[in-house]
């Protein structure tokens, strides 16, 4: 009706009076030193995407800082390649990857355990 068309809602949520001032303040708020960048990269290779643990090695950074830094730099740094390259070094040349049991093997193992339990119960009776 005419009353609804006359009343207009103006959303003021998240309004910034001076967005450039906010942008400039944020730029200088948390600058990463070269030393911090090096520690981040080293710890990321050891603990991929465990930002809580990585942040614990950095005095002036918290978890959101580390997450933001990761997503801002992941294309240039190519963290996936770093992790892959260093994963082989940690495991060693002569060690093979430990194979996980397949779903079928797990089911067979469970059936065998149940059979063993049934025979134990029969022997007790």
Short synopsis of the structure:
The chain has 125 residues and is mostly helical. It has a domain at 31-88: Homeodomain-like (Arc Repressor Mutant, subunit A), CATH 1.10.10.
Brief descriptors of the model:
Arc Repressor Mutant, subunit A, mainly alpha, 0% strand, 125 residues, 7 helices, 68% helix, single chain
What would you note in describing this structure?
- Residues 85-125 are annotated as: Disordered.
- One of its GO terms (molecular function) is transcription corepressor activity.
- Belongs to the N-CoR nuclear receptor corepressors family.
- This is SANT domain-containing protein.
- The chain has 125 residues and is mostly helical.
- The protein has a domain at 31-88: Homeodomain-like (Arc Repressor Mutant, subunit A), CATH 1.10.10.
- It is 68% helix and 0% strand.
- The protein has seven helices and no strands.
- It has helices at residues 2-6, 19-29, 34-46, 51-56, 63-77, 79-91, 103-124.
- α3 (34-46) crosses α6.
- The radius of gyration is 28 Å and the shape is flat.
- The protein starts with a helix and ends with a helix.
- The model has no long low-confidence stretch (mean pLDDT 83).
């Amino acid at each position: 009706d005419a009353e609804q068309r006359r009343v207009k809602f103006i959303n003021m949520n998240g309004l910034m009076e001076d967005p450039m001032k906010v942008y400039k303040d944020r730029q200088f708020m948390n600058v990463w030193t070269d030393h911090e960048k090096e520690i981040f990269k080293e710890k990321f290779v050891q603990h991929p995407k465990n930002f809580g643990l990585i942040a614990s090695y950095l005095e002036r950074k918290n978890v959101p800082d580390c997450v933001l830094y990761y997503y801002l730099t992941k294309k240039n740094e190519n963290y996936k390649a770093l992790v892959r390259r260093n994963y082989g070094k940690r495991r060693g040349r002569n060690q093979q990857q430990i194979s996980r049991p397949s779903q079928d093997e797990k089911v067979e193992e469970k059936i065998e355990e149940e059979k063993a339990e049934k025979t134990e119960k029969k022997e007790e009776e």
